[in-house]
Design a protein that fits this description.
By secondary structure, this protein is of the alpha+beta class. It contains 8 helices and 14 strands. It has a 5-stranded mixed beta sheet. It has a 3-stranded antiparallel beta sheet with strand order 1-5-6, with no helix packed on it. A hairpin with a 4-residue loop joins strand 2 and strand 3. The C terminus is likely disordered. It binds zinc ion (ZN). Zinc ion (ZN) binds next to loops.
Length: 322
């Protein structure tokens, strides 16, 4: 009921869609609150037990330290049928290095993220053999009769393979966001919501190059979802240090001379039509994001660059670039 109340509040608050009915196989799980000390105990190095009301003691794999003073936990079952128990705790944010360094992060075409430092990162996907196996399974699924035992088995195998991909992606997002939060004081990223708003609002000042890159790739939806997760985790780990930047023109602007031209961008390469400056297109965009973020970060602190890590959440309005 608590979750439902929150869902309705979100819906009427306009931030979320109307809560949907639950469905078997989708987001299976439940939350237990008012956990008492002693409801969680460690049996051995790798095994723990948790007392679940109406069920009793349930064993789980002690894969990481259970935080002290746990008040609630959530038991979930993913699509691949794996059960998890997650103990709720708000982790300490990662402290800023205090170097004053600002980084811009851009979503890439060929790579997943490009940093203004020139580094690029790619989210791990399925390997060649795994992908071959997946397409084989998909063909098998198409041939399997409806409701047959074989169909169920093939489907389960497909789900396991996809779950493996999801695991890898999430792991990569955790590592990447931790590294960014540890290495840089201020992290500039694109605000995708702004992009969507400008695109739907009117004809659009949004970079045409972006539209190409958004259509590019088979995993667009997954990458977009991954980006939202990456941005969210960054804000968890570096609260007040993430600056969201409107993505308009970041991919068409020359970082050397500021000339804006659609023609400057040719797939993965940026070559400025005005000054001839050349760079990896995603890195060039990341540098623009960094520069915008730098300006906004200063504004958000009232121009005081020596204030150290910003404690408060930056004001959204201040940070929106149009
Ligand atoms: Zn230029």
């Amino acid at each position: 009921m608590k979750d439902f109340a929150q869902a309705m509040a979100n819906f009427f608050g306009g931030t979320h869609r109307r809560p949907a009915w639950r469905k078997r196989g989708q987001g299976d799980g439940f939350r237990i609150v008012a956990v008492k000390t002693g409801d969680v105990r460690r049996m051995s190095r790798n095994v723990g037990e948790v007392r679940i009301p109406k069920v009793g003691w349930v064993r789980f794999r002690w894969s990481r330290a259970v935080p002290g003073g746990v008040k609630s936990y959530r038991v979930t079952r993913d699509r691949a049928g794996r059960w998890f128990v997650a103990f709720a705790a708000v982790p300490e944010p990662i402290p800023a290095p205090g170097t004053g360094q600002i980084v811009g992060v851009d979503r890439g075409v060929a790579v997943t993220v490009a940093l203004s430092t020139g580094e690029t990162g790619r989210v791990p996907a399925l390997g060649d053999r795994e992908r071959a196996r997946l397409s084989r399974l998909l063909r098998k699924l198409a041939r399997a009769g409806r409701g047959s035992v074989r169909r169920g088995k093939v489907r389960a195998a497909i789900t396991r393979l996809r779950a493996r991909e999801t695991d890898r992606r999430r792991d990569w997002i955790e590592k990447t966001t931790s590294e960014l939060a540890r290495r840089f004081d201020v992290i500039g990223i694109e605000d995708l919501n702004i992009g969507g708003m400008t695109r739907s609002a009117k004809g659009t000042p949004k970079a045409p190059a972006r539209n190409v890159r958004q259509k590019a790739g088979l995993n667009r939806g997954i990458l977009t979802a991954g980006w939202g997760r990456l941005a969210g985790r960054l804000e968890d780990k570096a609260p007040g240090r993430v600056v969201k930047v409107g993505p308009a023109f970041t991919s068409q602007t020359c970082n050397a001379c500021r000339h804006v031209a659609r023609r400057s961008r040719d797939q993965a390469l940026f070559r400025c039509v005005a000054c001839g400056h050349q760079d990896n297109a995603d890195v060039n965009a990341a540098k623009n994001i960094r520069d915008i973020a730098a300006g906004l970060a200063v504004n958000a602190r009232g121009g005081d660059r020596d204030a150290g890590p910003v404690k408060r959440e930056p004001q959204r309005d201040l940070l929106l670039m149009r």
